[in-house]
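The records we work with from here on pair a chain with its fold. These numbers are not coordinates but entries in a learned vocabulary of local backbone shapes. To see the layout at work, look at the sequence and tokens printed below.

. . .
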Amino acid sequence: MNKFIIGGWSQSLLNESRKEFDVMMYGMVTNLEGLTTGTSMNPGWSPEKQNKPTGSPGFKGKTLWVYGGGGCSPEGKPSNQEEVSRIAEATKSQGWDGVDFDDECNMNMDLVIEAMKLLKNCQKETSLGFIAGYSYNHPETSTGVSLNEKIKKLILSGQCDRFIHYCYASEMWSKEDILGNVIPALKRTLSHGAEKKKCILALTTRGLTDWNLNYYIDQVLDFNLGGLFIWKYEDLKNDHYEIIKERLWK
């Protein structure tokens, strides 16, 4: 058993996980009314109808579907108990191992927690991803105070297995933004009461360099976090994957 876990996200069910991954996440289910990828006008696949992908040969990790993501709509979802039950039922009926909640459209955290409770009751995994940047580190701002309160509430609930810190945008942050936000964000989540092993640091392969990759791995090691997750993992250079495996799987 590795001390740190590695995971990745894919927007396509055709992208197989790397066999060494511990967690694979598919989505993004951004049409929250219809529970599909895409939009309500142009829906894609749905976790209610799509069986959990089998994964690549040799893959023994967990496979989750992603509720939310960039461009998800409408805001304030899930909005009632029926939608909460629908999330859990889709996960159970199609064999998924859990749900990764990607809150990029002001989700209803009270009902996200209720959905997580149902999932945990049937031995499914739960995680929440959030942008751990300037707003999170400045709770005096309107978006910052809301995000911090959400994370505090979720930690207190005890229903979330992993708190995934998105420390990137459309590409890796600048060096200034990395130095100014990554460590403060991790310290903030820990100060809210999260367990170290439940905290995950996430990066993207877009703009990934030896320096920023090693800086992120340094924090996983120094804080003894749960692990490292990768957006656009299919574009990960072999040299960078070797760095990850060498430093986190010793």
